[in-house]
Amino acid sequence: MKRTLLVGLVALFACALTAPAASAKERLLTFYSPKIHSLPYVHDTHNVTLEADGKQAPKEPGYITGFAEQALVDSKDPDAKPLPIAKMMVHHFLYWARDRVDEAPGGCWRGAGFIGGRGEEHPLGRPQAKTSPAFRKRYGIRNETSTGDAPQWRLTAMVMNHYKRPKDFYVRTKVWYTTEKRTSVQPMVIGDCAQLANGMSYDVPGGGKKGSNFVNKNDWVAPMTGRLLMASSHNHGGAKYQALSSLTCKRRLFKAPVYNAPEKHVYRTIRPILHEPGPIGNGAYATAKGIPVVKGEVLRRVAVHDNHNLHVASMGFWATWFVKDDSVKKCGKLPNDITEINKPKRYDKTPDYDLVVPQLAKPQGAFSAFDGGELTVGDDFFRPGRITAKVGQAVTWRFSGQKPHSVTVANGPRGFSSVYWGQTGGTYTVTPKVKGTYKLVCLVHPTSMAETLVVK
Questions:
Q1: How would DSSP label each residue in 237-300?
Q2: Rounded to whole angstroms, how far apart are CA atoms 114 and 107?
């Protein structure tokens, strides 16, 4: 009996020793944000902390090998279906782990700990669903601080609430995760970093001939030698395509198309229209072998938009995965395993560039002539509601509310917008150069705030 008991204890001890190794294998983990409260018919941004407690973010240090889902739900039931897009639409999610190690320099969001996200071009909430197990077995984003702990995450969630009442929800995040060693990936954003203060957005003014283009581009210098593993285009606002090329090697790496929603897709039928609907897909690419890029190599990003109609708060940038590799040679051979991921099964090749975004609230009061003084943007109002100005007159708005607001053209002869997620202080100035009626809204509160500016 003693011998049997001893053998049993030894076996139990051996199992205890091997248990951590078994748990190190890649797992699909599910996390929930704290409850988020949203008012009806708003287009607002929520910044929340995700604790490294195993419930909101990983508890153990390890590697993120991919994001399987990023969705809005109204309960923590694991079988809860994502909230319908017609009621709660996602503009974007962004995930940050500011204190993690292995963050490369050079991206537009350097120092912020960017680890992933999704945009409107991922209506199903699965931005990396098609990355292969073999890819994930080799690469991962190191989720660890310099002290060896799992970092706290931050989540930025911009959502559009189409419910007629306040709504509480959670952001459910499913990640592939492992504590096994992986080759450390460096997420980097390639875009016009000068637009960082406005969330990487810019305005397409419109007014050009039918078929005319607006081009936003910049050059980016690679901060290290390595391989480009993944590149996802984020491109909306009358977008036509976005390209990424190596000027150093004189070759195009990607030309990402824009996949428009079919005629009956919810992106085209949703009401009220809180902002210009985006595409249901942008080109996204992955390669396990990687595209060789050396330190100092110049990459050019070119985002092309329709310029016949106005498109405010447009965007064009690339979210990429790089891995450091000092063995890479300058202008080395391109890999033969580049594949497109996240291409929608059904889409429309006919764009919806000429959609007129309505002014959903009715401006109040009689027209008054602009006297050169500052106009007021307060909580739930513009003052005055109707105003006339002359071509070439600088018009300034001052923000004085407790809530964030914007001054944005819903429709008119040209497009312009202040900070699209809103501001609570400071001023915004525009000098209209084209006559016409500018129907303005607050992009955060489009159903309750409006102002009409007539330029003569």
A1: SSEEEEEEEETTTTEEEEEEEEEBPPTTSHHHH-SS--S----SEE-EEEEEEEEEE-TT-EEE
A2: 10
102-122: per-residue pLDDT in tens? Answer: 998 889 998 999 999 999 999
pLDDT digits (tens, 9 = 90+) for 55-96: 999 999 999 999 999 999 999 999 999 999 999 999 999 999
Residues 6+ apart with CB under 8 A from 370: 387, 388, 389, 390, 393, 395
CA dihedral 62→67→69→74, nearest 10 degrees, is: 50
Residue range(s) in the chain whose domain bears CATH number 2.60.40.420: 368-455
Q: Give the three-class secondary structure for 409.
A: strand
Cis peptide before 384 (omega within 30 of 0): yes
Residue 217 near residue 231, CB atoms below 8 Å: no
Name the class of domain 368-455. mainly beta
Q: How many whole angstroms separate alpha carbon 303 and alpha carbon 317?
A: 8
What 132-138 contacts at long range (C-beta under 8 Å, 24+ apart), as own/partner pairs, is: 132/288, 133/26, 134/288, 135/66, 135/229, 135/286, 135/288, 136/26, 136/65, 136/66, 136/176, 137/26, 137/65, 137/182, 138/182, 138/183, 138/288
Neighbours of 370 (CB within 10 A): 18
